[in-house]
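Case study B.
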Amino acid sequence: MNHFIDLTLNGLAAGAVYAALALSLVIIYQATRVINFAQPALALIAVYIAYTVTQATGNYWLGFAAALVTGLVLGAATERILIRPVHGTSPLNAVIVTLGLLLVLQGAAGMIWSNEPHSFPYPLDFRGRFSPSDIFALASVGVAALLLFGLYRATPLGLRMRAAAFHPEAARLTGVRVGLMLMTGWAIASVIGALAGMLATPPFVYPNVLDAVFIFGITAAVVGGLENPFGALVGGLLIGVSLSYVSGYAGPELTTLAALAILVVVLSVRPDGLFTRPTARKV
Amino acid sequence: MPERPILQIESLSTSYGAVRALDSVSMSVPRGGICAVLGANGAGKTTLLRSISGLKRVDSGRVLVNGQDLTRTPAERHVRHGLVHVPEGGGVIVELTVEENLHLGALWRSGRRERAVLLQQMFDLFPPLLKRRSQPAGTLSGGERQMLAIGRALMARPQVLLLDEPSLGLAPLITRQIMQTLHDLRAATGLTVVLVEQNARSALSITDHGFVLSQGAVAVHGTSDRLLSDDRMRHAYLGF
Amino acid sequence: MVSLEHSEAAAAGTPRRGRGSRALADRWRALPVLARNLLAAAAALLGIFLLTSVTSPITDLHIASVGYYMLAVAGLQLLIGFSGQISLGHGAFMFIGAYTMALLVLHQPMLPLWLNMAATVVVSCVAGVLVGAATARLHGPYLAGATLALAVGLPSLTVRFPELLGGNNGLSITTRGAPPALSGLITNSQWHAVVVWLTTLIGLVILATISSGRMGRRMRAIRDDEAAAALAGIPVGRTKVIAFVISAGCGGLAGASHTYLLGTATPSSFALTLSLSLLAALVLGGLGSLWGALWGAIALVYFELWGTELAHSLDLSTNVANNVPIVLFGVLLILIVLIWPQGLHGMVRRLGALVRRRG
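Model:
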């Protein structure tokens, strides 16, 4: 029973990270109909910047802030430079461009910081059951989700961003600068991605450190439904807890296969994920 | 000396690929005018509105609003110059609530308090929207959607309103109500309306000027009364 | 060579000048597609044989690698380029093929090579049916996500079943070289290259024949407009699954060739990078034509080599040198999409048109 509780709590903490990554994917998917396969690489660069800043200043939280700022800048730049030119062309183009960016950034990280792992600090004490670091993971993702919800629901900027995502032409006719809004969406999503990266990376940072987390994040996003941020959060926690059980009772090497199994089962029942509203979005 | 027209279009041409959609269209609409753009399917009516509002790139010619050249201005800037385009079907955003749709119309210019006042005005103009204010716009009926679309446009306090077939799929009674509202607004605020319509007879009965497009060019124009009474012209272009 | 693209490539491949050659070209075009493809494949195999008889063993290995990559990329071309389904996990089928091959050699050492290859195709096609049926209802990003998880998840099986699959070290096999009867005529490395290319060419003949036939037209119809295809009476679900199965079979066969050629199957060779590289090669070569698979496969093999060589010759630090190929590949992918969406094949075709105009 104790083991079960441990697994559940660990799963929730890990799930918070997957939820954050899933959230960042969903925000971008809603805005531009693109799955950002470069998300783990954007987060990776943010984490390496944090590593460098923390090394230089000795202050973890300065590094943390630097990571978030890096995410913001990288996300905006990616949209503006790489995604906008392929907007409205075949969806495969966006897939290829983001995959290309993934390769470039991972390679660049290896060039700059080497492929060897460096030790990377936890935000807080990480020992014991449901450690302060675990609580920090859950809490920070929760706060991020709440801030995001508030931004989208209660501010003029959020209204503009939603309008630009749902119906770009109508948004333009009401004076919304659609390109700017999509860029903002990418920037915000990448900040959340960077947060997920900061939580998922410890104890070591190396160029492929976020790959597995990204697979679970994208699984969570797909299971929750790519159209729904709430689904991404639930999907993340669901995947986190399920995989924690699989890892604890059956063996950690099975987690990716278990994620695949969950994905196939959920999608065979609901091909658009658990929380995508049934109303077709055809305007 | 007559007042400068609020909307002036000078030999506007545009095309889709090799197909010319508008061929040197010129027209001018005086302040407070309500004018109809008529013509068969594919005559270029919608393209004309899209070219005016910046949604469609123009090959040559000029669009002047209040004497200001907006030909190459991006669509999202037009609202700042007092011109709002309500596209075919209204362009309401079905995922947003009625209130959010309305707010969107005034976001570019006004603060929270001013928006609240405008919002109340819209609910006064279109009472059916009030009780649906927090519903997603996707749940509205066709008439309510058109009201919402026009309401959102009016939230921007426009000087020129471009309406693309607002009567499409609506009961004649509702269409008349909407048009009456626009007439009242013209009387109160000097609003100018450009109305694209398929049904020439009803459009001419509520406008004071008409332009008939045929194959992307202005075939005939004149006062609505004259167009209605000219049998030859009616048979040739308007089919009634 | 194989008539991979329909009329265009056939026309491009045949000389236009001279009365005699024109008659020959006409007769060539009058042949049934399958016969044309078989003849072209035979010619290509002869070409590989002649080429490898003058090249060094290490070059033979590269040529053979191009062969099996080409088969995998061509299978992916059928899936993505023709039927419009985006799979990010094609390495999974190569993994299945490679391990099936290794297990067969280890546990049934007496079976002939061709039977092993055939068994591999069957196994990977079965896997393709399972995955294809499970994912047939998924569209675009959902399919991409599921196949991505497949590519990452499957190789972890080796760690789960270390006795059978050899854990992280994988499985090693020994393959026979050239048959004794041919020992004076052909070197071992040459024999390997010829065997791999024979496998690849058989696969390509099948792919080319399918894609120029009714099934190919159905796939393209679905790719271009799924709803319209369904309205026109095309069985959309079945066609998609068939595309998946065929491309899985090609992937499995390519994996088997990989094991046969290198003598090993390790999980690290089938990491996510492989799946992404296959996709990259496809885009680089050019979507929508099987010829693209050839250019993509060549790029896949030689970029790695050149990138490493370049980094060494520039005397870069190991950190930088190790990452040159991956960065180069990523940059090329982005540039191809932004600047040259037709890929290398588009470039080759345009050059060909230019040359023909001159001549």
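The longest strand of chain A covers residues 118-119. The remaining cases will be described in the next quarterly update.
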